[in-house]
Amino acid sequence: MPWLLSSQLDCMSSSPSQRECERTAFSLYCAVRERLPVWLLEDMRTMEVFCWEDGHPRAFMPSEAMLYALVHNHQDYARYLLNRYSVSALKAPRCSFCCCRGSGAPHLNLAVRYNRVSILGMVVEALKDCDAQSKPLEYLDSCGGCAHVADAGKTAVQLAVELSHSDCLLLLLVQGARPDGLEVALQRLVSCDASERRHAQRCFDFLLLFLPKPPPLHHLQDEPQRWQSLLGNEVFSWLCGLAPPPLLLQALRCLARFGPDRISTLPDFLQPHSWQ
C-alpha cells in the first residue's frame, strides 16, 4: 500500500487464498481510484473484498476503505464512511506485516501527507462525536504505530510542519492539537526554496499563534543578525525571551481559536506574516 515503506511491498503471498484476498483488496483500491459511486464501493467492500489475517480471510473494514478514500481523495466515499461508522472508520487497522494491533492515527497522517484538507476537516468533525472529552485530543496528538510504516513516530502536526502543509496544520491546531515542531519550522524557513517559502512561513506563523510560550531556542542567539533578518525584530526578541509577544500576534491568537476560516479571510496586511 502507498503508505508503507517500499521495502515492505516486496513481500510475496504464501498461499492462493492469501493472494485472492490481496486481489480483491486491490480491486477495491482501483475502484476507489476511479472514483466509482459510493454505493458500488460499499457493495464491493461488504460482499466481495477480503483481508487476510491470522491465516484466515476476514471482511474488509471501513477504516481500511477510509485509507483508500484518503489516498485517492474520494471525498464522497470518505464522507459516507465517517457518517455511517463515525470514529470506527478511523480505527488503526492491524499491520499485515508484523501482525501487531493497530495503533496511532494513520488516517490523520495520511490526510496530511497527501494534503487532503477537505477530508481532514471531515475527520476532525467526526472526532467531536467521541464520548470522552479527552479522546479527540489524544487522537490528534497520536504518533504513527509500527516502525516500518512511513511517518511512524510523528504526529500529524509534526508531519504538516515538515511538509509545509499549512492548511492542514491550521485545521489541526484549531481543534486543539499540540503545537509541536517549532524547531523544524525554523529549519524549513532556512532550507526551503522560493516556491515553498510562503507555506513554510505560514506553518511557522500558525505555530506561534497556538504556542502558550516559546520553548528554549538558544541557537537563535548564536546568530542573532541572521535570525533577526529572517524573523523580524519583534518575533526574534519574543522567541529569545527578551520581549513580550507582538501585539498583532496576541490579537490574532484570539481570532484563530474561532476557526481556520477566520484567519484565511483576513486582508493581507493583517495576515500573520505582517507582525514581522
Number of helices: 16
H/E series, N to C?
A: HHEEHHHHHHHHHHHHHH
Q: Structural class of the secondary elements? A: mainly alpha
Basic shape: elongated
Please state the average pLDDT score.
83
Q: Strand tally, please?
A: 2
Strand order of the largest sheet: 1-2
Terminal-residue CA separation = 43 Å
The main β sheet shows up as: 2 strands, antiparallel
**Rounded Rg:** 21 Å
Q: Strand fraction band?
A: under 5%
As a percent range, the share of helical residues equals 55-70%
- From the structure provided, what is the oligomeric state, counting identical versus distinct chains? single chain
Q: Poorly predicted ranges (pLDDT <50, ≥5 residues)?
A: 1-12
What's the structural blueprint in terms of helices and strands?
Layout: H1 16-33, H2 38-47, E1 50-53, E2 56-59, H3 62-71, H4 75-85, H5 106-113, H6 117-127, H7 135-140, H8 156-163, H9 166-174, H10 182-191, H11 194-210, H12 219-222, H13 224-231, H14 233-239, H15 247-256, H16 260-264
Helix pairs in contact: 1-3, 3-4, 3-5, 4-6, 5-6, 5-8, 6-9, 8-9, 9-11, 10-11, 13-14
Structure description:
With 276 residues, this protein is mostly helical. It contains 16 helices and 2 strands. Strands 1-2 form a two-stranded antiparallel sheet. The N and C termini lie far apart (43 Å). The model is unreliable at 1-12 (pLDDT under 50).
